[in-house]
Write a structure and sequence with these properties.
Shape: globular
Distance between the termini: 58 Å
Strand content: 25-35%
CATH superfamily of one domain: Periplasmic binding protein-like II
Number of strands: 13
Oligomer: single chain
Largest sheet: 5 strands, mixed
């Protein structure tokens, strides 16, 4: 018997890649499954001029996809996990988090931060990236740039900005790392990525047992633990995508290592902790609040 599963997703090239990747993994484990992709525009896709931190809406890249699932127009939604609010809307649950790609940020336009000219203009709408780069290079200037990956790469190529910073995972998925001459930034000392960066998440209706079962094969346990730690730190700070927080959890000899950096009042606060997963978010939050 064949079963049809409808996957809602944003319509951007990167989001479509993620949805197709989810579909491919599902077909591998459920060969008779028929999958329909339902692309849609999100609130955040319509306004490329306003910096994200000024839009003021939590989950701005997710809510239309999630609403389609809640309304029954789709069975599941595919998201960049870093775009998801730290709590699911009533009626939805986070059914799976896929194996994470490289979570690091990359610099495009120079071989390193040190190679950028004095006072160079860096294009990024991320307050997190601005805070961390300014800590290393206080002379840098920043301007907001929005749009898809190709748009941002074009602004560097045309000299509108000297450099930009992007997620390695997105460039890698679109096969653009080499063309962009992307240089990875050390997450421990230069630019700590956004919570859940590099991970793809799939949610569905909590009451939909069939879809929950179908999606269970996608979940990567180690990634889910790491992302869970990072999202708990974000939730503890009552933050969304506009909070200048970098947070990364990685396996360690003692269990897990977590580093968090928070831009606050012109300073950058750093917290590092090791140990078992469950107490780490609380320890990190206590260190950041000192």
């Amino acid at each position: 018997m064949t079963i049809t599963l409808r996957l809602a997703t944003r319509s951007s090239p990167l989001a479509m890649w993620q949805a197709r990747h989810v579909a491919s993994m599902l077909r591998r484990d459920h060969p008779r499954l028929i999958i329909q992709l339902l692309p849609m525009s999100s609130s955040g896709d319509g306004d490329h001029a306003t910096p994200l931190y000024r839009l003021g809406t939590i989950g701005i890249f997710c809510k239309e996809v999630q609403q389609a699932v809640l309304d029954g127009h789709a069975d599941a939604g595919v998201h960049s996990c870093k775009d998801l609010p730290t709590s699911e809307p009533e009626g939805l649950l986070l059914a799976a988090i896929l194996r994470r790609a490289d979570p690091r940020d990359v610099l495009i336009g120079a071989g390193s931060l040190d190679e950028l000219a004095q006072g160079a203009l860096v294009g990024t709408s991320s307050l997190r990236r601005q805070a961390q780069l300014a800590e290393r290079r206080p002379d840098l200037r920043f301007t907001s740039i929005r749009g898809n990956v190709e748009t941002r790469l074009r602004k560097v190529a045309m000299g509108e900005v000297a450099a930009t910073v992007m997620a390695m995972a997105g460039l890698s998925r679109l096969l653009l790392l080499r063309r962009a001459r992307a240089v990875a930034l050390d997450p421990l000392s230069v630019c700590t990525p956004a919570p859940a960066q590099g991970a793809v998440a799939v949610d569905c209706r909590a009451a939909d047992a069939r879809t929950r079962f179908l999606l269970s094969c996608l979940n990567h346990r180690s990634t889910a633990v790491a992302v869970g730690i990072e999202r708990q730190v974000l939730a503890g700070l009552s933050g969304g995508c506009s909070l200048p927080l970098g947070c990364l959890a990685q396996p360690h000899a003692s269990g897990w290592q977590v580093i968090a950096r928070l831009g606050q009042d012109g300073t950058l606060r750093t917290a590092i902790a090791h140990g078992a997963a469950s107490p780490l978010p609380g320890r990190i939050l206590a260190l950041l609040r000192r």
